[in-house]
Amino acid sequence: MPERQPCTVIWHPSSTSGQRADAMRTELDKHPHVEVLEVDGTSETEQAVFERVSRPGVIAAAGGDGTVRQVVSAIMQARANGKEVKATFAVLPLGTGNDLARGLQIPFVPEQAIDVLLSQHESPLDVVEFETPSERGWCANMVTGGNSGRYLEVMTDELKERWGAFCYLRGIIDVIKNLETFEIELRCDGEPSEKFTALNVFFANGRTSGGGMVVSPDAAVDDGKLDVLIVRDGQPGAIAGLTASYFLSDYKSHDLIAFRRASQIVLKANPDLLLTADGDSIGATPLTLKVHPAALQVKTPAASAMQAD
């Protein structure tokens, strides 16, 4: 049997509560080579990561997408500071969204998630570097801007249950009368800029956002590219028609969707777009994005287990 790697689990007590967290902690305590390190905030997360990232082993983020982004950012900052990254990254999903975990097919059942953590199977993970006038950092799943926050406001439990992963575009119907439009200028991979009148922009490394709502079904976290989706302004009936196209998986060819794929992106907007990265506010446009291909190795289920799902 291969020797167990030392493993540090970054645990935010304020964001890891409830029965699933209790069960996860109980299971982790059964493994003497696993260190559960309780931290409070970004600075303690960075310190914990900086001290361990250059040693072979595993650094795991236990929590939701915000915790995951903090740990990913700390690892990338350590590399930017000249540290060699030898540790493998891992995710233990304990949040409400868990979108990166969904994309990596990490099980939500604590015992099964820990099996992945302790396994020998790893996969490459692209990391996205972003910069706005107020913040520079990294994320692993998705950057969004526009009216998506308004969609989420109308996402009732009944709507989520009925429409499942297609809630994001279904939500457009309920807020059509209150949508704000943005004149945006988009430049991808150094090509000439394109201009759009837009309702929303999505830069997808992973497939889902907002807790499992599919934004870009074909996005992959290991292809070195972001899926870029621009939702254009249009007549209410045409906007509502996006839902049907989405169900039929031909939304990329819809007249109101502009789809691009790129590894380096510059976005400007008037008025400025408020932006989020993996659910956290990162300020407003202008925005630059750069994909770092295979920046991290991440624990994932074995291929057979992923195919079984």
UniProtKB/TrEMBL annotation:
GO terms for molecular function: ATP binding; kinase activity. This is Diacylglycerol kinase (ATP). It comes from the Bacteria. Keywords: ATP-binding, Kinase, Nucleotide-binding, Transferase. InterPro entries: ATP-NAD_kinase_N, Diacylglycerol_kinase_cat_dom, Lipid_Phosphate_FormReg, NAD/diacylglycerol_kinase_sf, YegS/DAGK_C. Residues 2-134 form the DAGKc domain. Gene3D superfamilies: 2.60.200.40, Probable inorganic polyphosphate/atp-NAD kinase, domain 1 (3.40.50.10330). One of its GO terms (cellular component) is plasma membrane. The keyword Kinase applies.
